[in-house]
Amino acid sequence: MRRTLTVAVATAALMLVGGPLPVAEAGVEAVPGRWSAREAEAFWTPERMASAAPVAAPGAPTAAEPGTGEDFDGIPVVGRMFVMKGAGAYFCTASVVASPGHDLVLSAAHCLLGTDARQVAFVPLYTREEPQPYGMFPVLRDAGGRSQVWIDPRYPRDGPDLAATLDVAFAQVGPDAEGRPVEEVVGANRLVTNAGFTHPRVELIGYPASAPRPRRCQNRTTKFTSTDPGIPGSFLRIDCTGYPGGTSGGPFLTHYDPWTGTGDVVGVIGGWNTGGNTADTSYSSYFGAEIRKLYETAVAGAAVAGEAAV
pTM here? Predict the structure, then answer.
């Protein structure tokens, strides 16, 4: 199962998931409310990124009529989200989503949940051979040192099973070391909500734990309605081979354009059993009115944070 290794519960109406101020190490200065691209690059060395473990554990490789996943060189709009939890370095998959501030990334809530999550940074198109082809974008912090992450408050309150339909998170990232916002560097997918559960062709992209490069697969999605009262709700389901731990947060893309490397994002790996209990079948929370509201809250919060920084 793609289960969270560390879960700390918080109940604020607007989740600003964060943790202790960064620990000064390897010449990285811990300054309240500050976490710049240069600090992130100094902390997340190629060696530390390569040693990071997936936030969630892998599943067993079984599925019926799966699409065939394959490793590929990746696309700039999708990358790894690195995070320190406790003393460990972890990662999930994340992708850039279009926003007015050009500074939002999308992942699964279980990837970024926890008041001990810190030193969070997004690296577009990460590969082991080339760890930072488009630089590094730190998840911003407020004046109290909390990461700018938005998760529906019911998710930490009710837990990843009862609130599986809300396994979505938005994070605001700061500019790279050259001062450029992430969307202007790599582009962005368009968030689409209320698009239904069934799509004839979806591009699924994720970063498996043991693979040096990302993975992609094309297949249709179907509607899956849970019969387990402990994990209620309906979810998007896709059968694609080889999506174990690390792929959580990976986007479900419709209308994918291989020339631009972007599409319409209608889901992320997560939701039922935090993404599924096998590596060959993945799930997503449905992007309906609640996810649209969460996105709008993140856009408004990011705008306020941007104004405060001016």
Answer: 0.85
